[in-house]
Design goal:
Length: about 280
């Protein structure tokens, strides 16, 4: 069996203040991309996960172990992960893999959302890849109607930027909004995206509060954002904690034209707003 684990794009990310437990409330719109890791699932003598290019235990391994602890009694599985989502690029690749593993036990193991939250803040939203309004620390997921078709150009800039480091830098810079402000923003996003419009129709609401922190750690992010703007991209942002810069387009043809103008080896073009 071949399972797709789609990347997720943060169309926006509004950051709350640091809580006493060290975590941050947030308000974000997540959408899946056609870009996806591929997971080959086959029988084995014992559970095993192989993911070339990712050293040590990954979230997929932890997800499988979590299912076993909750009594999932299907025969042992071998999972071979083909990484297509850039690693540590703010595109949720590890969380996507973990969520795909949890979906193997859908309807057979209860509490998958809770298990996903234990594994990572982005995992619950990816159990059912769809445009979603996300709050809390990622565990509050509200599914929204599919948006009108659109496309994205990604510039991952080599990945390798630690999410924890970006949040720590955001704290150092004094970034963060009050809870009441996040609630107001969530209402605006819900109203704008709830009718199934393209994100380009409410571009004024799309912003990433973590951009200053990410650019402080990786100044080359600014270069990627500028390249997208110079290519005539209608909307340019940073996804998640970075370092991936992205641009939104009305069509895959327009996205490909811009990518050709950028002419960079790491450029990725794909459809957005729906998973494969």
């Amino acid at each position: 069996m071949l399972v797709h684990a789609p990347a997720k794009l943060n169309l926006c990310l509004y950051l709350g203040r640091r809580r006493d437990d060290g975590l941050h409330e947030l308000c974000s719109l997540f959408e899946p991309l056609a870009l996806a890791d591929l997971i080959k699932v086959s029988g084995a003598e014992s559970d095993e996960v192989e993911c070339p290019g990712v050293d040590g235990e990954n979230l997929a391994s932890r997800a499988l172990a979590g299912l076993r602890r909750r009594g999932w009694d299907r025969p042992p599985r071998r999972l071979e992960i083909e990484k297509r989502i850039p690693v540590a690029a703010g595109l949720g690749g590890g969380s996507a893999d973990a969520a795909a593993v949890l979906r193997l036990a859908a309807g057979e193991v209860s509490g998958l959302e809770a298990l996903g939250a234990e594994l990572g803040a982005d995992v619950p939203s990816q159990l059912e890849p769809a445009l979603s309004l996300v709050g809390g620390i990622g565990e509050q997921v509200e599914r929204l109607p599919d948006p009108k078709p659109h496309a994205v150009v990604l510039l991952p800039s080599g990945g390798g930027l630690s999410t924890a480091a970006v949040f720590a830098e955001a704290d150092r810079l004094g970034l963060g909004r009050d809870a009441a402000e996040l609630d107001v923003i969530a209402g605006r996003l819900r109203a704008a995206a709830g009718a199934g419009a393209s994100p380009l129709a409410y571009a004024e609401l799309l912003h990433n509060d973590l951009e200053p922190a990410a650019r402080s750690l990786r100044p080359d992010i600014g270069e990627a954002l500028d390249l997208l703007r110079e290519a005539g991209t209608p909307l340019v942002l940073l996804t998640g904690s970075g370092p991936t810069a992205f641009g939104l387009f009305e069509s895959i043809a327009a996205a490909r034209e811009a990518a050709a103008a950028i002419d960079r080896d790491d450029v990725i073009v794909c459809e957005a707003g729906r998973a494969r």
